[in-house]
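Q: Got a minute? One more chain.
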Amino acid sequence: MSLDIRVYTKQLSDDLIPKIIKRLNDFEMVCEVHPTFSFNDQEGFLPFKFRLTNPLFDNLRDKELISGFELFIEDFDFEREKQNSQPKKSFWDKLLGKKQVDQPLISPDIDKRLKDCKKMLVFVWHAGNSFELRFAQMTSAILTELTDGVCTYPADDIWYDTKDLAEKSFPEIKDYELTLLKDEELELFEFKGWDEGF
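A: Always. Here it is, folded:
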């Protein structure tokens, strides 16, 4: 089963990539993203090479691994999305000339944060894959912080507060990884080179 997190941003440029990697490395790992990655043409799987600096299991110590998530980037037009979400007037409402009641897209507070956003990034990971979750959640949180963006987990209709989002996300990821009590439950892929695949 696949899950996703969405991030809405006002701007998006490749200048953010080294900042994202630097920030990811603050969370008990040393990582790098695929060398050809660019926000300008990304669609599909985005791999990361990494080594954990404080692994939960001994078999992960000093291993270079590869993981990632699927990343899709779309244009976002708040006004169009809001207009498309408005309830349609019934035949009788039209006949009686009732005015359309303006409904928020999400809520007044979230709408205020979304209205200047121009891009939507969709981070997709597969349930049960600890490292895909780690990279999808941490990268989306860091990008949200760096761009003063808006982050949501649409499956549960959760809209996150931007402040300290990465710091709040990391303990949740660690707790999830601890629930994988046995080493055998971790799906590991050792890094063999960018062109080697998994």
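A: Residues 2-89+111-185 form one domain.
Q: Perfect, thanks.
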